[in-house]
């Protein structure tokens, strides 16, 4: 395993890593606090949380395996060379572990607090089921040949895919409601900072080693940073520029639900204007 060439860069690497850990870890608490104060999760996408839970579990499996397992580390060095560094740091493992715990807390709040008309969509449930079924199949494929590096790379790919799609339900819900009320922007700001710190940490390692192997050796860490930055930018734009963050949540949710019920003008005419129209009846 390669050693650091520059002590100052090694210190910067550690600082950036733990700043990413703090940003991403603390980023989960504003939503927990907001849910607790409101005794409600209305405005928080339930699909976002279940996809996020799958993502963090997959990332924990990858980070913990590559950081702690000598067998997996040997397979990594056999593939990328013994002159390279393991691309997973202690802060990556700490972040993954903490994120799983935070997500469990939020899921428990979803079970306890008011959800309004919100529920997990069949699409999100199907995605999660397919992901874990596929991961199980991959485990049995890797078992005969002990291809553990390949297996955890699958989990790394899973967390990238989950990161790509997990933000969409929340962004889409904000779009439908034209509001970000009930969704904590504080967590997004910290999430954005974590993405920047995480990417910067990998850049520092590459500069010290004079090699970009750690980038494609742990492409998942690179992509999670870039995807996080892009999606968080969209959510921040929705909150600060596009929508009223203090909008009438109940009214917006009612409008979203009614827009889904009122399928067409013909249906409205058949069912009557009272159910689907937002206008009061004319006075006689």
TrEMBL record:
Keywords recorded for this protein, A-Z: Lysosome, Membrane, Repeat, Transmembrane, Transmembrane helix, Transport
Database matches in SMART domains: CTNS
GO terms under cellular component: lysosomal membrane
Cell compartments where the protein resides: Lysosome membrane
Keyword Transport recorded: yes
GO molecular function: L-cystine transmembrane transporter activity
Pfam families: PQ-loop
Membrane topology: Multi-pass membrane protein
Membrane-spanning segments: 12-36, 93-111, 123-142, 148-168, 180-199, 219-243
InterPro entries (alphabetical): LC_transporter (IPR005282), PQ-loop_rpt (IPR006603)
UniProt-recorded name of the protein: Cystinosin homolog
Source organism (scientific name): Canavalia gladiata (Sword bean)
């Amino acid at each position: 395993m390669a050693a650091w060439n520059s002590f100052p860069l090694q210190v910067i690497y550690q600082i950036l890593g733990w700043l990413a850990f703090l940003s991403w870890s603390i980023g989960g608490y504003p939503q927990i606090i907001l849910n607790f104060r409101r005794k409600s999760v209305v405005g928080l996408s339930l699909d976002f949380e279940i996809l996020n839970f799958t993502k963090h579990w997959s990332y924990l499996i990858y980070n913990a395996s590559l950081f702690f397992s000598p067998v997996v580390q040997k397979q990594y060095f056999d593939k990328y060379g013994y002159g390279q560094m393991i691309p997973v740091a202690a802060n990556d493992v700490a972040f993954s572990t903490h994120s799983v715990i935070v997500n469990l807390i939020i899921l428990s709040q979803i079970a306890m607090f008011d959800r309004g008309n919100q529920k997990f969509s069949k699409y999100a449930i199907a995605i999660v089921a397919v992901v874990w079924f596929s991961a199980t199949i991959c485990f049995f494929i890797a078992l005969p040949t002990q291809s553990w590096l390949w297996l955890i790379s699958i989990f790394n790919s899973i967390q990238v895919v989950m990161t790509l799609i997990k933000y969409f339900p929340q962004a889409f819900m904000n779009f439908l409601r034209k509001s970000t009320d009930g969704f904590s922007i504080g967590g997004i700001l910290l999430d954005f900072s974590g993405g920047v710190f995480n990417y910067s940490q990998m850049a520092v390692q590459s500069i010290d080693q004079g090699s970009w192997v750690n980038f494609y050796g742990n492409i998942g860490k690179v992509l999670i940073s870039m995807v996080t930055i892009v999606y968080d930018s969209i959510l921040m734009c929705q909150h600060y520029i596009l929508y009223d963050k203090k909008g009438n949540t109940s009214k917006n949710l009612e409008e979203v639900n009614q827009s889904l019920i009122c399928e067409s003008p013909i249906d409205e005419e058949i069912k009557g204007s009272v159910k689907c129209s937002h206008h009061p009846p004319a006075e006689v």
